Amino acid sequence: MAVKKPRIVAIDDEPDFVDTIREYFQLRGYEIDAASRAVEGIELINNKKPDVVVLDLKMPGINGEEVLGLLKSKQPKAKVIFVSAFDDSGKTRKRMLSAGAFAFLDKPLNSLRQLEDTVNRAYSAK
Amino acid sequence: MGAFFAVAFFFHFIIRYLELNRRAFVTIVYFLAFVFTFFNWYSRSRFFLGDIHFVFNQFYWIDALKYKNPLFFVFYSLFFWIILGYAFFLLLKAFRNSSGVTHDKLGYFIIAIGFGWIGTNPLFLSAFRINIYPYSNFLVALYPLLVAYVIVRHQVMDIEVVVKKTLVFAGLLASVFAALILPTLLIQEYIFRGAGVGGKMLGLAISGIIIIASLRRIEDFLINVTDKYLFQKEYDYKELLKTFTGEVLTVLDLNRLVKLTVDKLSDIIKITSCGVLLLNNEKNQYELVASNGIGSKGIALSMDNTLSSFLNRTRAYLSVKHQGKDSALPPRIVEDMNKLRLELAIPLVAHDEIIGILTLGKKKSDEDYTQDDMDILLPLAGTLAIAISNAEMFDELGKTQAEAAQREKMAVIGTLSAGINHEICNPLGIARGQCEAFLLNIKDGLYKNKSQQELFEKAKKIMEKVIHETDRATVITKRLSTFAKPSKGEISYDISVKHEIDEVLELVGYELKLDHIDIVKEISGALPFIFGDKKQIQEVFFNLIRNAAQAMDEKGRIAIRARKDTRKVVIDIEDTGHGIPGDKLTQIFNPFYTTKEPGKGTGLGLFIVRQVVERNRGRISVKSKVGEGTVFTLEFPMSAKVKV
Questions:
Q1: pTM for the full predicted model
Q2: Does B429 map to a domain?
Q3: Using CA atoms, how far apart are residues B80 and B100, in angstroms rounded to an integer?
Q4: Which residue in B221, B211, B216, B226 sits closest to B178, CA to CA?
Q5: Is the ipTM of this complex over 0.95?
Q6: Are residues B83 and B202 in the same domain?
Q7: Which residues constitute the domain of residue A29?
Q8: A50-85 pLDDT per residue, tens
Q9: Which chain B residue has its CA at the smallest distance from A64's CA?
Q10: Residues B63 and B170 in one domain
Q11: CB pairs below 8 Å between A and B: how many?
Q12: Which sign does the torsion angle of CA B332, B338, B341, B343 carry?
């Protein structure tokens, strides 16, 4: 397949979740790096210049919202997809989307396929 | 022998007086006393009291050094000092832990015993030929004097009853003796002089008839006389009134009220048994809720029961004196009366309804209830009925408050859901993702070049992860559901402050971490248990820790400290938040006071926290400095149960 696949960085404070995603995308030929701490994630973003960032919202230390802000100022081209279990009847989701996030998916994911589709849509939407 | 058993008697008395349970110990002490006596009597020449001789020509004592076996005397001295020392130690301990009249009584006792000791000490010295003139012996006289004073002044033991019975008995004995001697003598000496055996028998018979005919009357007469001249009964009534108006009827806790009632009534009127039955509206029966001297618990009289229907019909008291006078009581009533060991049953009428029955047993003096007794007991029962009805209403009110607390808790849990959702959804997300990825990888042919063995290992790893993650979700769900359940109102005596705080932190900890709030715990390891409703106490911690977190926007520190302070456990929950200005500080425990945005807080949190704390016999206070933070301080009395 000639279609270029997006470069992904995933940041989530649950190492097992990050591993699941990494394995899934790697097996399917994506270039993906993952971190379970936001600080490492930011470093990855700086080094790898990803097309899409899969991001958790609530994390100890730096949270997803701050990472989004950072990305918007430094690498505005990168698309952000939130995957979070945080639910305050849609308020935060709205805020993130208006702050420039591409999508906000709930944890648990309906399907990994859905995430993959969203990643691809984000990549092609640029 | 006296010296040996005096120790045992004294020890036994102290144990009984302090109401301690040391039966085995007492038995051993008696046994030792017996052993000493045995050796003293049967082996005098070989072992024990060697040479009783006079010291200073006045005080005889023994010479320890002259014994064939002086060790024996040493053993006895040890026995004497250890047992008495232990008894004295128990007394001192009780003295320190007591208050009020009991405190005074014990104080006198200790002083009296102290005099007794100092007085007798030199006798031991002389046994070892240290001859100091025992002036101090005269101090011994102070011992009975002081004890007698305490007995009279503070009514230690039921000495009145004892004295009275003794007097009545002595009087009776004298009368019987007089009745026996006089007629017999008169008849024998003057009327049937020389009538031989037959005359004597006749004299005895007449005496017998006189005694039988007059005995009961003489007894009544003697009881009346002793009552009238020696024991002014009005004192009892005064005490009864004083105790009930001052200590008992003001109690709002229903259980405590009825327990106090039976205790104080038994104590003051000196009756062998006493009980309170209260109407259970749901089951429509009178249930024994507090009792003293009524062996069997859980007695309930249904409405169609003869005793309760009798009281409901007559609305008047029922006394055993009614038995056999005008008409015999039905046997079923008598059966119930025996079951409740009552001589007197007084209906408790409030709001025109018999809400309970007060039962009074036999007086310890064996006397019947008099009209004087009834004149005070009936109005007392009337007031008691009102107090009980008030306490019941207060209890109802407490239940309504408990419901409000539950609603508040659910509201709080609602706001918690963000954090808890995270804790449940994350593991579920991982479990689902792992399984889905495996299936999709097979479907997409990505595992084509993997061997069966590799696939098997892969599946095994996934299963293990799924189990681990579902367990994680289960733990948090369970914790949440335990917390959300309304409290059952059960009192636990082994609540560990540390454990409860840890439980609460497990529940809120993740959220606090997300909000960059550090938790500092300084909880002393050797903290005693506290008692109360475990769930309610957990709620208190939960509310205060959450409040502390909310007082800080983001970033900050919550310090939780717990320490022991005399008989209390003191817990501080301190935050580094905004602080509360002085004028608001007085309002924060008021209902519906809130500083949060509309919809965020019900304003019931701290109000309910205080209610719950006070219901668990605790206290809550607050100190705050604007810009620095707030400390809530909780105090709970420590439980009697010892930590193991």
A1: 0.43
A2: no
A3: 32
A4: B211
A5: no
A6: no
A7: 7-124
A8: 999 999 988 877 889 999 999 999 888 999 999 988
A9: B514
A10: no
A11: 65
A12: positive
